Amino acid sequence: MTAELQTWIGVIATLAIFSFLIKENPFYRFFEYTVIGMSAAHAVVMTWDNYTKPFWVNGVMKGEYYLLIPGAIAVLYYFRYAPPKYQWLYRYPLALIMGYNIGYSLAYDPRPFMTQIRGTFESLKDLNSFIYLVIFIGVVVYFIFTFGNKSAAVGKTRTFARYAMMMYFGVSFGNTVQGRFSLLLGRLLFLLQDWLGLVKLG
Amino acid sequence: MSRFLLLAAAEAQKLPRWGIFVDTDGAVSGFFTAVILTVLTWYYVTSARSGRPMPEIRKLAGLDAIDEAVGRATEMGRPVFLANRTAGVGSVHSFALWGYMGYVARLCAQYDTPFVNIAGSYLAAAVNEGVIKQSYLEAGRPDAFKPDTVRYIPDDQWAWTSAVAGMLKRERPAATMWIGYFYAESMTLAEVGAQIGAIQIAATTNTAQLPFFIAACDYTLIGEEEYAAGAYLSKDPMLTGTIVAEDVGKLIVLGLVVLGAIAQLISPENNFVSKMLQF
Amino acid sequence: MRRNVPVILTTVTAVIVFFSIVLFKTADVWPGRFDRMQQFMAAVMMFMGMANMTRVHGNVVLKKDRNWIFSAWLLLVMYVYAIFGMSVGNTNDTYRWFYNAFIPPVNATMYSMVAFYLTSASYKAFRARTVDAALMMACAVWVMISNVPIGDKLWGSESWLGGMAGVRDWIVSIPNSAVSRGISVGSTLGAFATQLRILLGLERRHLGQG
Amino acid sequence: MLEKLNNLDSRWMYLALVIVLVIPIIKPIGMSISVNKDLTQRMYDFIDSLPPGSLIMFDLASNSSSDTEITPMIYAVMEHMYQKGHKLLVAGQWSSGLAFWSPKIDERAREYGWVYGVDYVNIGYKAGGTSTWRAMGQDFWKGAMEVDINGTPFSELPIMQNIRKLDDKTIDCIVIFESGSPGMETWITYFPTIPLCKGSVAAEISSSVRYIPTGQLKGLIPGMRGAAEYEKLVNRPGIATQLMDAQSMSHLLVVALIALGNIAYFGTKRKMARGR
Predict the structure, then answer these.
(1) Would you say B78 and B172 are in contact if contact means Cβ atoms under 8 Å apart?
(2) How far apart are CA B137 and CA D59, in angstroms?
(3) If I label C199, which of A2, A105, B222, D230 is the partner at 20 to 30 A Cα–Cα?
(4) What is the DSSP letter of D60?
(5) E strand or H helix at D231, and its extent?
(6) Quick check: D137 and D190 in contact, CB under 8 A?
(7) Which H or E element spans position B177?
(8) Does residue A95 lie within any of the structural domains?
């Protein structure tokens, strides 16, 4: 019974969301607001279960006292919604988080970057790899913002790179179409197979 | 096939690394890349500070269009939307976003046009609020900030999208800006925006989503152009200096690639550029 | 104290984290601890989202704006579900039942709607107004046809150049992959520059008003 | 007439799309497909080249939204592993992906007669992101909290006795089924030595192929079409093959609409020019 009820809610939700294609309506709005409310709550519950509680129980309580310092600083973030006089306090946890992330990506991001650069010339042997190299150089030149803006050669290279990029976007678009229709097929199968029982696949 | 054998051979032969560094490909060269870029940036920023003229950034139509978009929203008396779903406070996309936000919020305050920011990260929402209030203050309109100027919608991809799509149809903004890293929701956002007739400006580095923004938006900033906005819009010579440093970085990359290609043609086994980058 | 200290704090933290990752051979002692500290901070800040939503929608409810009933419903759902979830845990059957009843179908339907938008967007956007648009359209059409069995019927993969699919594969693996790599090299450098702007204290917008 | 066509209401297109999708589902035609030599075939060959009994790790970095694309891929790769006698370690960077596919994988495993804990194991979702994976690179058991998805300790699972470290000596290949982030970057950045294959949703194909020539990816299954190709390679047609007809029709609809859009555009343009 409860599983059946779940399917029915699923069907109603599916139809309600699809109705947005025709017009925005209260039926859609109901599911929109319900799901935002639920996913806001879900985000809090998941953080609570996977981070806050385990960090407290398995971390701080088991002797990782150093965690208390960032924890205490993090509390300052709530001053964002305090009276204006105290609002500046939220900058401290913000500064720490930003610093951590900047240091982290400055350290890690160059490594795959090196592999990508190596990849442009390490396979150089046939016509294809030369075409590859030329297009790569063209695209990098396209993204140079400040030098050679008056040079005709740079201008021509940029036009060439732009055409190559447009080809890329076309291909990327064409390839994605397949995936998006797959998803829609999945939803139609839900309605036709799981709910109405009109077809049987797989 | 031989290409793969070659690569496999290169992988098998471990390069000795300096003792204190982590033993991973690109650990040392990556470290130096970070250091060189920092030094370059520092150099150009200092020379900009001392008044040396910086070259101009090439024209970026998408950024020039911001004024037009806000102007039209003012004429029509409709709001301007600026949204990003994924970026948290530590994300480089937020850093870039704040450049746009400061500029657009200031324009909106000057013209008395409602401005709405939709954020997918609650930490970023708090910071965005500060950025917008600051811009309103600079424009002399600190009272323009409303409680619903910054709206946090939980970063559950499709819950977020359903909310934004709903808002687009209900509030009918005259201009929408999609800035930062987007995934599959790009098509829905851009097409719903197009259906309500908004001027749309998009900027993303996610190459997989660029085609959808290009198809349905009026202006699209491709890849790295997203990051140049802060410097381009503020016209601050020091920020321009960082862009110049980045361009020098690109020239170095091009130099390395050309050098590596030549070395590869001469002797694939002893390609010193390749080894240097792997180090 | 209010502006300069956070800037210095950001720079110092970034430098420490950077060297701990680059230099420590036992990669997980200090970088791992920094990871944990950052995660714990995020865990402490977890109610910021609900605070923002309470303010936005609470305001709508108080002013009885358009759709205020929906906003009230949203707040009710959010608080009840959050308090219930935090007291019983996310693996509780009732909690999961509600989750599975509402969220996956809405998500999947929302996602699948992209197919509709894609159809209408390609009708309006792919018009050969400029060389750029014409190139993009031609490639998109080519790939779409070669991705489905009909493409094999039109120009089979056993024939010259590997047929439609063969040409598609060439475009995907040579020009396409070169462009993608070119863009990503640029974005990586651009991201560096953006981060360095914060690291060097040039960009201070995030510190906001006051 | 042409002006009307130029501003055709989107809702007519939506209706047409539903019709062209539903008819082939109910009444399939069954057209044959060719196999992509650079992507699908390469991945098939790589997995085929591993000696029998190799350990392959699945990383489920996706969720139920990508069901129709990813599920046939998982089934097809499992079928291949069954034919070759490989062993399977199921993990995932997305908790929602594990929750969704674990039962389906168990069902297939039962069909193949795989014994849990001997032929395959599911370690479940491990919170903590990349730092957790890196910890597993040092010590798999400790990093993974020493329990599988059901809470069974690793010490009771025979297959786990040989899995002590997440590295290239233990894991012969990682197959990631990905539809977004976190995804393959985790493996490319932190575990570059472990061979990586990818089952990719269609949207990610174009941005992933650049990793193929560098060897960072050993092969790739491109979308539902790729799944159908893999089904053909392992000789067991499934859902992907059955849905390819609906795919064909919808693709043709989009192409027809693009053609129609251009006719309308150029038609009205000429008319406007003449009118002036």
Answers:
(1) yes
(2) 49
(3) B222
(4) E
(5) helix D223-233
(6) yes
(7) strand B175-179
(8) no
Average pLDDT over all residues of chain C: 87
| CATH code, domain carrying D194 | 3.40.50.10160
Assess whether D121 and D218 both reside in one domain.
yes
The answer to whether position C4 is within a domain reads yes
| CB atoms inside a 10 Å sphere around CB D81 | 25
Could A188 and D18 be called an inter-chain contact, meaning their C-beta atoms sit closer than 8 Å?
yes
Last residue in a domain, options C56, C82, C112: C112
Q: Kindly state the DSSP code that residue A49 receives in the 8-state scheme.
A: I
How many separate domains does chain A show? Answer: 2
Mean pLDDT of chain D: 89
Do C127 and C184 belong to one domain?
yes
The parent domain of residue A6 ranges over 1-63
**Distance separating alpha carbons of residues A138 and B254, to the nearest angstrom:** 10
Q: Hey, of B264, B273, B274, which one would you mutate to test binding to chain A, going by the most A CBs within 10 A of its CB?
A: B264
Chain D hits for B93, Cβ within 8 Å: none
Among chain D residues, the shortest Cα distance to C112 is held by: D65
Q: Report the C-alpha gap between D65 and D180 in whole angstroms.
A: 11
Boundaries of domain holding C184: 116-190
* Helices C175-199, B92-111: crossing angle, 10 deg rounding: 70
Give the domain extent around D85.
Answer: 40-237
Could you tell me if residue D35 is inside a domain?
A: no
Measured between CA atoms, how close is C64 to chain A, in angstroms?
Answer: 16
Write the pLDDT tens digit of every residue in C93-105. Answer: 899 899 989 998 9
* pLDDT one-digit tens code per residue, B59-104: 999 999 999 999 999 999 999 999 999 888 889 999 999 999 999 9
CB-based contact D200:D178 (threshold 8 Å): yes
The neighbours of chain C, by the rule of 3 or more Cβ pairs under 8 Å, are: A, B, D
Q: Tell me, what amino acid is at D59? A: D
Helix (H) or strand (E) holding B92: helix B92-111
Q: Which residue of B has its CA nearest to D206?
A: B208
CB contact at 8 A, B189 and B83: yes
> What is the CB-side half-sphere exposure of residue A81 using CA atoms within 13 A?
19
pTM of the model: 0.87
CATH 3.40.50.11540 fits B61-234, yes or no: no
Q: What is the ipTM of this complex?
A: 0.86
Comparing alpha-carbon positions, the chain D residue that sits nearest to B4 is D215
Query: What is the domain count for chain C?
Result: 3
Count of structural domains, chain D:
2
Q: Is B257 on the interface with D (CB under 8 A)?
A: no
